[in-house]
Write a structure and sequence with these properties.
heterodimer; A: mainly alpha; MetI-like fold; about 80% helix; about 0% strand; B: alpha/beta; Rossmann fold; 7 helices; about 35% helix
Chain lengths: ~230, ~230
């Protein structure tokens, strides 16, 4: 395999950084939403459920555009965050991470929600009689039992973030070194004459990263699973 | 002598439970046919469900009182509960299950007491295993140990032998008798099986259709069994 150029390395590094940050930052929100949807009945639950799943069914370009008009420099949320916290999303890698996190969110929430729904709540009652208050029941019983779902959700979210294209390019464009991920770089190379070789190299890299993520996920899920059944 | 005073009312759909009784230490049998409200009553004592009206007190400590709006949450009642299905935590080893109550209640480690309970229940060889690898009888013994090691003020046992076959029941009863004789934790023993209760209980409350039909010594069990047959 021919050597990767520095620009290609930057795209790979950027893709991994964006996907990891998107997944890690989305996790606490995903966990909270999954728990709410699994356990609570409240006004607007169907609405929240719909909102969470929206990025799954909307064209990614629409999601990207909605992010642009709300989190962009002139968008109400974007302007507020930039003014008060100095957080800027537009045309930055942070914006790419936001787009990837939003696109991966439904894939993150669903397995966690299913895992929490599958937990025998009588175990939580047992924990309460043994002296555990609500937060500790969650940390010592609910969360460990939902761990396989948590891992599955994180892997799906990471994979989605790694491959995200439409929402990212619409929201933060395709700037080498800042928002140009592997997907965006491949797209760019296919648009210029003689870019096939570079595109091919990045395609190989994308395949290798995806396979590695799958193997790691499988291994983690097995470990979490055998903990309940094995010695 | 620990005294449990219960005087509660609860409406659950078409079923109404109105129960009033007191116990004074030892092992109190809570006896009655299925559907008579035994488990509901145990859950109210443990704090897992709230009565509609009434009062539950352990010695001078009021656990529930609808008149003064007291409802001590389950995790602060210090009442051990052995469930029919054990309910061991599948993600923890037997040792970690046993230690769970102590950790959650913030009690100091007490290796001597742990060793005593482990020996009493004969579960020392199981400590490194996970609940999924235990037999039904082993699981219930671990569940009893887990409830005891939180140093409960009262131990609730809800049909602890119901999921076991006759041979396993015979295997566990001696452990429960030793528990009664060697620890001084008062117990409420819920069952619909009179012979089992007669081997372990020191007093009895008979529940029928959500009402206390009789309360007193073990003769209550004889009278109830005679009536049923």
């Amino acid at each position: 395999m021919p050597e990767l150029s520095p620009d290609e390395w930057i795209a790979i590094h950027l893709s991994l950084k964006i996907a990891i940050v998107a997944t890690v930052v989305a996790l606490p929100f995903g966990l909270a939403v999954a728990w709410l949807l699994a356990r609570k009945n409240f006004w607007g639950k169907a609405l929240l459920d719909g909102l969470v799943h929206l990025p799954l069914v909307l064209p990614p370009v629409v999601t990207g555009y909605l992010l642009l008009i709300s989190f962009g420099r002139r968008g109400p949320i974007g302007a507020f965050l930039a003014e008060h916290f100095g957080i800027v999303f537009s045309f930055r890698w942070t914006g790419a991470a936001l787009a990837c996190g939003v696109m991966g969110f439904p894939l993150l929430v669903r397995p966690i929600r299913l895992a929490i729904e599958a937990i025998d709540r009588r175990l939580e009652d047992a924990a309460a009689t043994l002296g555990a208050d609500r937060p500790r029941v969650f940390l010592t019983v609910t969360l460990p039992l939902a761990l396989p779902g948590l891992i599955a959700g994180m892997v799906l979210c990471f994979a989605k973030a790694l491959g995200e294209f439409g929402a990212t390019i619409t929201f933060v464009s395709n700037i080498p070194g800042e928002t140009q991920t592997i997907s965006a770089a491949i797209y760019t190379f296919t648009q210029i004459p003689g870019g096939d070789l570079a595109a091919g190299r990045l395609v190989l890299v994308a395949i290798v990263i995806s396979l590695a993520a799958l193997v790691v996920a499988e291994w983690l899920a097995r470990r979490a699973g055998t903990r309940f059944h094995g010695e | 002598m620990t005294m449990l005073a219960v005087d509660v009312e609860k409406q659950l759909g078409g079923f109404s439970l109105v129960a009033r009784f007191e116990t004074a230490g030892g092992v109190t049998a809570l006896f009655g046919p299925s559907g008579s409200g035994k488990t509901t009553l145990a859950n109210m004592i443990a704090g897992l469900i709230a009565p509609d009206r009434g009062r539950i007190a352990l010695d001078d400590n009021v656990l529930f009182d609808s008149a003064t709006r007291i409802d001590v949450p389950a995790h602060r009642r210090r009442i051990g509960y052995v469930f029919q299905e054990g309910r061991l935590f599948p993600h923890l080893t037997v040792a970690a299950n046993l230690d769970y109550g102590r950790r959650m209640c913030g009690l100091a480690r007490d290796p001597v007491e742990t060793e005593r309970i482990v020996a009493l229940l004969d579960i020392g060889h199981l400590l490194g295993r996970r609940p999924g690898k235990l037999s039904g009888g082993e699981r219930q013994r671990v569940a009893v140990g887990r409830a005891l090691l939180m140093r409960p003020r009262l131990l609730l046992l809800d049909e602890p032998l119901a999921s076991l076959d006759a041979a396993r029941k015979r295997e566990i009863l001696p452990y429960l008798q030793r528990l009664r004789d060697e620890t001084h934790v008062p117990m409420i023993y819920v069952s619909h099986h009179a012979p089992e209760l007669k081997r372990i209980a020191t007093s009895a409350v008979l529940l029928d259709g959500g009402r206390v039909a009789a309360a007193g010594g073990l003769e209550v069990l004889d009278a109830a069994t005679a009536e049923l047959t």
